[in-house]
Amino acid sequence: MITTLGSDVSKGSLYSLDANSLPDFVEPTSPVEFECLFSINGTVWTADCNPSGTHAALGTSMGSALLDLEARSQFWIYCGKSDVLSQQFISSGNVVLCGLRNGLILTIDTREKHISNNIAALNHSSAAPNPRMTNLPLGRRERRRNFVRSQIDRGQISSGHVRMTSAVCSMASLSCDENYFLASSMDGSIKLFDIRALRNGGVQSYEGHINSHSRLQLAVNPSETLLLTGGEDCSVRIWGIKTGELLFSETFSESCCTTVLWPDLEGYARHRLDQSHGAWLGSRDGLFYMQDI
């Protein structure tokens, strides 16, 4: 899946590409066909696909949408004023984690009834020329704001929520136990949370990360023992997930690594690659590979 940010003028969209239909090598000038699955008069910040590949979740400036990739239908599972900057399905695919600009993290059960009927006008961008719906009559705007504010209080959209100290820029769910997930915020905080005990806050913290305003990605190794991310000081750091101990810190790029990827072992085997412990990192300086971590 490929997302385009968009704006109030240029639509934010979600596109899909069938990688199985591509040859082993594609010329840079060769046309590639993408299918547009979703478009909105606003910003699409992030997207994630569930493990079975049947649904995709989108984080936008208007809330969070769930797309049925087989039926080509969509509906909204959360609508609010704070942008959804990061999203992550847990391993079962039944819950979507939504990280908001205001620091709130929502756990939304996709099997429950949601608010699609209440904000049906937002399902298509043509029906919502203004992302904040300011064109609605005052009474309807006030009812909508009251409805959004009460969603969390009534527990209708979320089985739990927790607030971090700044905007939530990245999350990573653990497949060994889907009750646990990692989240980082734009003030440098990184924490491990237990969905069953969100009221208690984080169960583990990871010190030393440097961030003040950037969307920096988290990555977890295939055995889910190590956590990797880049910092605004251009350093790459690795912590032990269970212990919270900082195990590695090194600078090898003149710009911060905003994207990181630790492919699973199945992916390496599928593409007949020998590297079983490496991670990929991307910065403005280029693409880097860390081997034998």
TrEMBL record:
Organism domain of life: Eukaryota
Keyword Kinase: no
UniProt-listed Gene3D superfamilies: YVTN repeat-like/Quinoprotein amine dehydrogenase (2.130.10.10)
Segments annotated as WD repeats: 218-249
Keyword Repeat annotated: yes
Keywords, comma-separated and alphabetical: Repeat, WD repeat
SUPFAM superfamilies per UniProt: WD40 repeat-like
Descriptive protein name: DDB1-and CUL4-associated factor 4
Species whose genome carries this gene: Rhynchospora pubera
Lineage summary: Eukaryota, Viridiplantae, Streptophyta, Embryophyta, Tracheophyta
